[in-house]
Amino acid sequence: MDTYLSIAPSVKLGRDVKLSKFINLYGCEIGDETKIGAFVEIQKNASVGKRCKISSHTFVCEGVTIEDNVFIGHNVAFINDSYPRATTGDQLQTETDWKVEKTLVKKGASIGSGSTILSNITIGENALVGAGSLVTKDVPANAIVAGNPARILRYIEQKMEVTK
Predict the structure, then answer these.
(1) Which of 49, 63, 64, 135 is the Cys-Cys partner for 100 at CB 3.0 to 4.6 Å?
(2) Could you tell me the pLDDT band of residue 106, with boundaries at 50, 70 and 90?
(3) Rg for the chain (alpha carbons), in Å?
């Protein structure tokens, strides 16, 4: 194993996956021909589809599903807990103290650099999330959203062709 990669034995890597250095992958699944940039963490019970690009400094937490042909820009953060707390009473929380909230990024979507995606969100097919956006609610298919909070700016008029 490369000393600059942290890939747990529980990770399922597809065919021809390209991995940069300084990544942390555990308990996740990565589809065929996907590229993972430097300083990316993908946690257990997260999945990334085929032919995706996950850019550097991105955090994909437990409960996130990214379908095929998705682009994730640099420094994107996914959230899986609407009400995070460090403790329950006077004790540090454990996994049994909370429930993972899921997020789905559908086929062909693109998420711009520096965006934050809250939990319990679906980003629709071919949707575009502008750089630096805070996504607080579902994004419809083919919508272009941006801002804090992200709002629909317009829709893509024709279905985008996703090429290999």
Answers:
(1) 63
(2) very high
(3) 16
Whether 102 contacts 63, CB under 8 Å = yes
Residues 6+ apart with CB under 8 A from 28: 11, 12, 42, 43, 44, 45, 46, 47, 48, 60
Q: Helix/strand/coil (H, E, C) string of 33-65?
A: CCEECCCCEECCCCEECCCCEECCCCEECCCEE
Q: What does the pLDDT look like over 6-51, one tens digit per residue?
A: 899 999 999 999 999 999 999 999 999 999 999 999 999 999 999 9
CB 110: neighbour CB atoms within 10 A?
19
Torsion-angle region of 10 (φ positive above 0: left; ψ -120 to 50: alpha; else: beta): alpha
Q: CA-CA distance, 113 to 160, in Å (whole number)? A: 20
Active-site choice (57, 65, 77, 113): 57
Residue 74 appears among annotated catalytic residues = no
pLDDT tens by residue, 125-161: 999 999 999 999 999 999 999 999 999 999 998 655 5
Beta bridge partners of 138: none
